[in-house]
Specification:
The protein has 183 residues and is α+β, with helices and mostly antiparallel strands. The chain has 3 helices and 9 strands.
Length: 183
């Protein structure tokens, strides 16, 4: 009985570790890459924001923690992945669901993970945020707010902020040896 308990515990730990390690974590450059404001049936494009911020993404139980500008957000895994969300990107330069599927080489939207939450965003009130993998070292996200009689949709891109995107992951030990740092 104790052996089976430890076997189950070890399996759960391994599964949690694999799930957290499947997608990139750490520091990312984040910027608003597209968006629109909609009033009634009229959409007005929001210009691309050239400013770059830094976001820290970490795995938490059941989701991801995203820290941007000192604000920590908890996004939870959404069942059925990309298949469970929809957005109307027609007439805009926002990514469509099929774009994300193509970028990830995935035919089944249920296999593309999505994390999201309704939360309080500084300066925007209550918003909905979703985060989806974009490539090996990137995410895309959407932030939707509803000030007054408008809908504001911002598309964000999170990219690893150091080195080329195809650089292999390193433990850093070789770099530490070259720098003469012990450990």
């Amino acid at each position: 009985m104790i052996r089976s308990f430890f076997a189950i515990f070890a399996f759960l730990q391994l599964t949690a570790s694999l799930a957290a390690g499947d997608w990139p974590l750490g520091a990312f450059e984040v910027r608003n890459t597209a968006g629109f404001v909609q009033e009634g049936d009229v959409r007005r494009t929001i210009g691309v924001d050239r400013n770059t911020g830094i976001a820290e993404i970490a795995a938490i139980e059941g989701g991801l923690s995203v820290t941007i500008g000192g604000t920590q957000l908890h996004l939870f895994r959404i069942e059925e992945g990309l298949a469970s969300i929809e957005w109307d990107a027609s007439g805009t330069n926002l990514l469509h669901g099929i774009d994300i599927q193509a970028l990830l080489g995935e035919e089944t939207p249920q296999n593309i993970p999505v994390w999201g939450a309704s939360l309080a965003w500084p300066g925007a009130g209550s918003v909905q945020m979703v985060l989806l993998p974009l490539r090996q070292n990137a995410y895309t996200g959407f932030l939707v707010s509803r000030p007054a009689d408008q809908i504001v949709v911002r598309q964000m891109e999170f990219r690893k902020n150091s080195g080329p995107s195809n650089r292999p992951v390193s433990s850093g030990s070789a770099d530490r040896r070259r720098a003469g740092i012990a450990g």
